[in-house]
Amino acid sequence: MRPCGKPSVVVVALLLLPLVLLLAACSGEDEENSPEGTNTPAAGATAAASATPAGASATAASNGQFGPGVTDTEIILGAHSPLSGALGAVYAMIPKATGAYFNYVNDTEGGVCGRKIVYKVEDDTYDPAKALEVTRKLVEQDQVLALVGNLGDLPHASAFDYLNDLGVPDLLVSAGAHKYGSDPEGHPWTVQMIPDYRMEATFFGQYISESLPGRNVAVLYENQDFGVDGVAGVKQGLDPDKSPLVAEQPYEATAIDIRSEVTNLKNSGAEVTVLYATPGFTGQAIKAADRLGWKPQFLASYVNSDDILFQFVTPKLLDGMITFQALKLAAWRDDPAVAKHYEIMSKYGGPAPSNFTIYAQALGELAVEMLSRACDDLTRPGLMDAIESVQGWKSDLLVEGIEVTISDTDHTALDAGRMLRVVVDEGGKGSFEYFGPILQLR
């Protein structure tokens, strides 16, 4: 039996309160007047008011094999994501592209399990308090079946425990912090989509020691889980006898300017610098290094592996920067799967195709695969059983040789990839190209 999470004292009290009132006021009512067994989101209004969406109503629905968010015609999924603000400008394309793929499936396949997918994405502005607020709305008011594709390490930290406490599936999370995929026992309702930053950074460290030995190494990192995990991975992968780590320089996500941090890195004597920074700060760091006349070999987390980076810094300055990915590239327009992606984004309201939107469609494809495995048990526990049954799943958008396996002990979907390098053509246009073998993260 799937664990029900770890309810807080407040949640337990709220769960008990309706029972106390029911015994006091309605002890003589017939069972046939009970609302249990009603299989529509609207039937959860009482549960939402008492903050128990995964309590009595979900249990009753399980008996009928239909959970919250499932009607005869719809399956309602939700997500929180930055849709506005600085990071919304970069990452809002991901949930929008996933939504476009769901529109495509609804139009061409009639949805999944005979029901249209309704995808409700709420703007969290990359703020943890707002992320919890909109997650509560999705669960307690909209009565979604599951959260799919929640985006952002920092904001998701506030919703992570809440969803697991209530037993609400928190699936295919677009957040690479180690904690989101490494604790399937303590957080059994969360499954991570993107690779773990710590594992990615371990490969960076190994690559540096094997391919760039004898050079001093530094790390610039966001002072959150994202960056802290990156530093830990680089340390794990480096051979200190070949590649001494001479500087670990944090910056705050709220910073306006990081020129002083870059100056510190230059002064450390680093010849290789790993960037665990989002695209805006990655661009700042590389431009600041250029102004200082400092030209280390840069490696940057896969959160930068999209052409949008060229909007923050010129291709000339990015030439040779190394990153990591697991998916086909948007530039591969002759590839049938990529060409189909362009068609879907154009016809079904998606954003302009990019490496990020290809990732988003792959996420949507895996979500549809998961739902299709749960057609006979469209409940929250049934959905978890379905996703943990995925073994060797492949998408045409994944790099050849990469596949997805998920189990009750492995809650990270994408656990392999290859190195990417920025290359600049004679006309000054930048692009990414793969090199090296497939690296398995587990």
Short structural description:
The protein has 442 residues and is of the alpha/beta class.
Return the structural class.
alpha/beta
CATH class of the largest domain: Alpha Beta
Q: Considering the protein shown, what is the CATH homologous superfamily of the largest domain?
A: Response regulator
Mean pLDDT over the full residue set: 88
Low-pLDDT stretches = 4-64
Tally of discrete structural domains: 2
CATH topology of the largest domain: Rossmann fold
Number of strands: 12
Order of helix and strand elements from N to C terminus: HHHEHHEHEHEEHEHEHEHEHEHHHEE
Termini separation comes to 27 Å
Q: What share of residues is helical?
A: 25-40%
Task: State the shape.
Answer: globular
Whole-number radius of gyration? Answer: 23 Å
Q: Give me the number of helical elements.
A: 15
In the sheet with the most strands, the strands line up as 2-1-3-4-5
Main sheet, how many strands, which sense, barrel?
5 strands, parallel
Strand proportion, as a percent range, falls in 15-25%
| CATH second-level architecture of the largest domain | 3-Layer(aba) Sandwich
Task: Write structural notes for this entry.
This protein has 442 residues and is α/β, with parallel strands linked by helices. It folds into 2 domains: 67-194 and 337-411, Rossmann fold (3-Layer(aba) Sandwich); 197-325 and 418-440, Response regulator (Rossmann fold, 3-Layer(aba) Sandwich). The chain has 15 helices and 12 strands. It has helices spanning 9-25, 45-49, 56-63, 85-91, 93-109, 128-141, 153-166, 197-211, 225-237, 259-267, 279-291, 315-318, 336-347, 355-372, 380-387, and strands spanning 74-81, 116-123, 146-148, 170-173, 190-192, 217-222, 245-251, 272-276, 297-300, 322-325, 416-424, 430-440. The strands form 3 sheets. A 5-stranded parallel β-sheet has the order 2-1-3-4-5, sandwiched between helices. Strands 7-6-8-9 form a 4-stranded parallel β-sheet, with helices on both faces. A hairpin with a 5-residue loop joins β11 (416-424) and β12 (430-440). The protein is globular, with a radius of gyration of 23 Å. Mean pLDDT is 88; it is low at 4-64.
